[in-house]
Amino acid sequence: MDPFRLTDDALLVLDQSALPREERWVEVRSAAKMAEAIAGLRVRGAPAIGIAGAIGIWLEAERIAESEGGRAARGSVSASRMKALEASADLLRAARPTAANLAWAVARAMGAGARGAAAADPRAWTAPIRAEALAIWEEDRGHSRAMARYGRQLFATERRFLTHCHTGGLATGGGGTALGVLLEIHRSGRPIQVWATETRPLLQGARLTAWELENEGVPVRLIVDSAAAYVMERRKVEAVVVGADRIARNGDLANKIGTLPLALAARDLGIPFVAVAPSTTIDPGCASGDEIPIEERSPEELLGYQGIPVAPSGLPAENPAFDVTPCRLVTAIVTERGIHRGPAFDLGGC
Ligand code: MRU
User: Fold this and answer.
1) Are residues 132 and 187 located together in one domain of the fold?
2) What is the CA(217)–ligand 1 centre distance, in A?
3) Count of domains for the chain
4) What are the tens digits of pLDDT across the range 88-114?
5) How far apart are CA 31 and CA 54, in angstroms?
């Protein structure tokens, strides 16, 4: 299942916050609506929000072009077009600050916009932005395929895996990152068993990972997040495999909150801890994990679930959406370019 459907003038976003209960599509025609869909986790997963951000820039450029009403051809429009678009880029980038893919893809779409901004014909301005956004989407599809191949090569014999959050097709433009690797191994005919953490507080593991694996016929067992170390030890898990939202040059990586304890337990138990992410998740501007911005989400996500209170109302709570796993705990990072083995990573050139 794809997270998006593109029409001539809109993007239909599959509302992941409603899955698997309901298949609901949200129509997006502006950057503001896209930022809302990203912040509300209707579209989620680092590569997918990058694609959504780039398409958001294109949709906003169409709105700006529309509002010019033919006046553009008469004067210098380049600066005013880009000024209007820059405000939308800010909005999109701020929607979720941790995943490197979002800011990266927005910058790429903005680059296409800046190059064509002086065009008298508005279509000659917007069409290359659309093409750039679609190229990002297409490239990501290829990244998923390559990562799946490298991941299968890395895990040549393992059969018992633990994963966290959701890293499948809905989180990317293709077949997924960590989950893409597990599906590739499964499709190769090797029997595997996957333990999926439910992933509090928004249950991406229960709602999306367990659902997707079951749909694909992969044996999966759902566990509460806090059962992970027990399961790793007692069920003889052979590898922990996760995605990533931003990777620093030294290999420190941000991923869904709860990833760091998995890496710590894996280290103690002597189990490999592997992250799978496209190179678009690597932030060459971040020397180490200390520089990765961590998104803090509303405490309401902890205090209740879908309108049902699970804690005293108004209780002080903290809700960091990601944590940072230091490279010393990372056995390998799989990108579309190959297998990078830790703990001494130098990802600056990736
Ligand atoms: O908050 P989410 O649901 O967007 O978190 C997603 C993750 O943490 C994934 O592990 C990550 O984006 C890897 S992408 C396939």
Assistant:
1) no
2) 22
3) 2
4) 999 999 999 999 999 999 999 999 999
5) 9
